[in-house]
Amino acid sequence: MEYTREKEHQEQKLKESLSDIEDDIQTSIAYKIVAASGFKDYIGRNPTFDQEEFSDFGEETYGVGDDVMRNISFLTDTTITHTYPYEENKSGIGRDLAEIEAQKDWILYTKRTKETIFTAPVELVEGGTGFIVRIPVESDGDYLGQISMVFDYNKIIEYSGVKALSEDMYVTLVSKDGFKASDSVVWSNLDSETQVEDDEVDSVDIELYDSKLTIRAFPKEGFSGKSSLFYIIIATGALISSVSGFVSYELLSTNEMLRQNQKQLGEAQTKLMSKNEDLKEMVDKLESSEEHISFLAERDLLTNLFNRRKCSEDISYHIERDGKGSVILIDIDNFKNINDTLGHSYGDKVLKHLGNLLLSKIPHGSTAYRVGGDEFVVHMPSVIEYKEIKSCVDTVFKSFKMHNSIESIKNHITASVGVAIYPIDAITSEEVIMKADIAMYDAKKLGKNRCHYFSDDMMRSLDWKVNLESDLRDAVENGKFKLLYQPVIDAGEKRIAYFEALIRMANSDLSPAVFIGVAEEIGLIVPIGEWVVKEAIRQLLEWKEEGHDLKPVAINVSPLQIRQENFVEFLKEQIESSGIDPSLIEIEITETVLMENREENIRSLKAIRDLGMGIALDDFGTGYSSLSYLAYLPVTKVKLDKSIKDRFVNFEEAQVMEGIISICHGLKFKVVTEGVEDQEEYSQLLVQGTDYVQGYFFSKPLLPEDAVSFSIR
User: Fold this and answer.
1) Which whole-number Å values give the CA distances from 344 to 373, 681, 709, in the listed order?
2) What is the distance in angstroms between the CA of the first residue and the CA of the last residue of the chain?
3) Contact 21, 161 (CB under 8 A)
4) How far is CA 593 from CA 245, 519, 605, 635, in A?
5) How far apart are alpha carbons 42 and 58 in whole angstroms?
6) Looking at residue 625, what is its pLDDT?
7) For residue 562, which phi and psi values (nearest 5 degrees)?
8) Per-residue pLDDT tens for 222-237?
9) Could you tell me whether strands 202-208 and 184-188 are parallel, antiparallel, or unpaired per DSSP bridges?
10) b vs e for 464-494, b when ≥16 Cβ sit within 10 Å of the residue's Cβ?
11) What distances in angstroms separate CA 339 from CA 334, 374, 706, one per listed residue?
12) Is the dihedral of CA 442, 444, 446, 452 positive or negative?
C-alpha cells in the first residue's frame, strides 16, 4: 500500500508541476494572443490603420502577462508594414517574410488557411531563437494580412518552469500545427539514447488557437514507490515483536509526513487561488482593451473627431431610414506646403486646430469627421436647402480665415469644398461621399478656395476622363501610339533642317493637347515619353537602312520625365544600344521645367547636352517666360510660340519681334518660329531674322514614309 501511495504521490506531484507550467505558458502566450485578437477585429474593420494606432495596441499587449515578448508586427499580405517596439524594429519594415526560407512555409500556410498558427523554435531574422504566433486578419471576408507575435525563447522556457522541472525530470516540449503531420520539438533535455516506456510518461496539452503545445515529462530515475516510509514498514514488520517502541516512532514519523503533505496541499491551494486572481485581473484588462478598441474604431486619434468609418455608418443610418441630408467635404488647400516648410509636427497642430474650429462652428445637429490626411466632412442630416448649406460653408471659410494663428504663426488657410445631397445625388453613403469628393476636386481644379455643388455634368466629365485614362493605359500596354514628323525649315536656305516628332493615339482623333495632360496627371507620361524616344530612334535607324539622308529629330519631353532620376541614364542607354549619332536627337522642353527642382533639372539638362544631344526651349512666350531664364538654361534653340508670332509679326510690331530674336541671338541661341501659315508671314520673319520656321505653310505633320520624300516646292 505504501509503495502504491508513494508512486501515486510522485505522479500527482508531477501532474501538479505540469499544470503549473501549463498555467504559466497560458499566462505568457495565450493571454497575449487573446489581447491581440481584439486588435485583429479592429484591423478588419479599419484596414487603413497607421503606425501610431499599431504602437498603442502593441504597448497594451506588452502589458498583458509576463515580459516574454520581443516584438509584435503586422504583415500586409506577407510584408512587414507596422511594428512595435518601433525604434528597435523599424529596419524590418518593407521586408517580405515570404522570401525568407526559414519562415516562408508558415507565413504562406497562415495566408492560405486563415488559421492561427504557433511555431517554435524559429531562427529569427533579427537574430536568436523565438516562438512565433501568427494570427490571420481578414477584412470583409478577404485575407488582409497577419499579426506576428515573437516571444523570447529563453524567457518562455525559464518563466514556465520547464527548466526548473528538468533538474529531476526528463522534459520534452513539443508543438503540433496543421501544417506539419508530426510533432516539432520545441525544447528537451532528453538524449537520443535514453529509453522511455510510454506508461511512465505524464503529459499535458496546451491549446493555442489552432495549434497545440504538449509537455511530456517523467523522472530521470523513474517512478518508485520505495519511499523512506516503505523501507520503514518493511523493517517494522521484521522487528515488530521486539521493537514495538520503534514502530510507534515510525508511526509518528508517518503522521508528520501526512502533516507535511497536508501543508503542501494547502500551499498548492493558495497558489491556485492566486492564479485565479491573476486571471480575473487579466479579464478586467481585456474588457478595458475592448472598450479602447471600440473607441479607436470610431475616432481619429489626432483630432478626436469621428473617422471615415463612422462617417460612412452615420450617413448609411440616415439613408436607410429614408432620410435626407447633405455632405460637405472640405479639403485644405496647399496643406503640403505647411508640412514641407514648418514640419509635420506643426502640420498636425494645424489639423487639430481646424478640427476644433469645425466642432465649434458647424450648426447644431451636424457632425464633423476627419476622413483623410487634410480632408474633413460635415454631415448635416435633414438639411438640403441651399441657404442653410451655404451658411455652413460660409462660416467654415470665415473661421479658417479669421482663426489662422497657431503657436503665434499666422497661416494663410483656405479650403476647396464639395457638396453632395442625398437622396438627390446619391442613395448610398459611399456614393454621396464620392460625389462630394468629385465636386471638391472641381472646385480645386478651378482655382481653390471655393465651394462647388455636385452636378451631373461633373459625373459626365469624370466618366469621360476615366474612359480616357483606360484608353491611355491600353495604348501604353499595347503600343497603340504613332509618331508623325513635321518638317522644320531653314528660313534662309528654305530647306528641311530637321523634323519634330509629334505623338498621336492610333485610331483616334484626340488631340495630344488633351491626352498628354491626362497622362501627366495619372503618371503615364514617363512610359509614353520613353516609347517616343525609342520609336524616334528606331525610325532613324530604319531610314538609315533604306539609304535616306538623315535629318535630326526633335522630341518633346515632359518636365516629369526630366525629374526622373534615371532619365539621363535611359537616354544614354538608348544611344549606346542603337549606335545612333546623338546629334540626330534634339530634346524639346518647356519653361515649366524651372517651376520645381530648378537646379536639379538644369543639372540634368547639362548632362543631356554632354551626351551630344541638342536642347530646344519650346513654347516660349506662353507661360512664365522671362528672358532672364535663358541665361540659366543649357539650350541651343528657342522656339517662339505661335501666339508670339501672331502678336508681333505684323509690320506695326515688327521691331518687337526683331528685338526678341536679336536678344536670343545675343545669347547664342538659334530661333525657331512656330505656326507660320502663309508667304507674307514667312517673308516678314525672314526679314526679322528668324533662323527656322515651322507651320502649315510648309507642311502639316507627316507619316514617316511621306516625311522622307517631302520636298519644298
Assistant:
1) 11, 56, 60
2) 127
3) yes
4) 112, 17, 10, 12
5) 13
6) 52
7) -60, -35
8) 776 555 666 676 766 6
9) unpaired
10) eeeebbebbeebbeeeebebbbbbbbebeee
11) 10, 11, 54
12) positive
Which of 202, 129, 196 is closest to 165 using CA atoms?
202
- Which residue, chain included where needed, has cell 520534452? 172
Amino acid identity of 142?
D
- Please identify which residue in the block is written with the cell numbers 496643406: 335
pLDDT of residue 315: 94
Q: What residues pair up with 297 in beta bridges, in sequence order?
A: none
- In b/e form, how buried is each residue of 529-549, taking b as 16+ CB within 10 angstroms? bbbbbebbbebbeebeeeeee
Mention every residue, 6+ apart, whose C-beta is less than 8 A from residue 571. 533, 585, 608, 611, 613
SS3 495: strand
Cα 350 → chain centroid = 24
Sign of the CA dihedral running 278, 284, 290, 295: negative
**Pairing assessment for the beta strands 495-505 and 553-556 based on DSSP bridges:** parallel
Where are the alpha helices (H) located in 299-385, listed in sequence order?
308-320, 335-342, 344-361
User: CA–CA separation, 694 vs 496, rounded Å?
Assistant: 10
- Pairwise CA distance, residues 134 & 145, whole Å: 10
DSSP 557: -
Contacts of 541 (CB under 8 A, 6+ apart): 578, 580
Match 530634346 to its residue by C-alpha cell.
587
In the block, residue with C-alpha cell 528606331: 538
Pairing relationship of beta strands 670-674 and 637-640 according to DSSP bridges:
parallel
Q: Percent helix, strand and coil across the chain, each rounded to 5? A: 50, 20, 25
pLDDT in tens, 361-403: 999 999 999 998 899 999 999 999 999 999 999 999 999 999 9
Q: How far is it, in rounded angstroms, from Cα 674 to Cα 558?
A: 19
Q: Which regions of 230-319 does DSSP assign to beta strands (E)?
A: none
- Closest CA relative to residue 311, chosen from 368, 359, 273, 269: 368
Band (pLDDT 50/70/90 cuts) for residue 173 is confident
- Nearest one of 34, 23, 21 to 277, comparing CA atoms: 23
Q: What type of residue sits at position 673?
A: T
Rounded alpha-carbon distances, angstroms, from residue 84 to 52, 137, 289, 307: 10, 17, 17, 24
Residue 118 CA to chain centroid, in angstroms? 27
| Among the ranges given (249-258, 575-584, 649-658), the one the predictor scored with the smallest mean pLDDT | 249-258
From the list 365, 366, 368, the residue with the least C-alpha distance to 356 is: 368
- H/E stretch holding 528 reads helix 525-545
User: CA of 450: how far to CAs of 207, 259, 390, in Å?
Assistant: 60, 88, 11
The span from the CA of 542 to the CA of 548, in Å, is 9
Q: How many CB atoms lie within 10 A of CB 678?
A: 11
Cell numbers of 113, please? 488557411
Instruction: Please give the full DSSP string across 630-643, using - where no structure is assigned.
Output: HTTS--SEEEE-HH
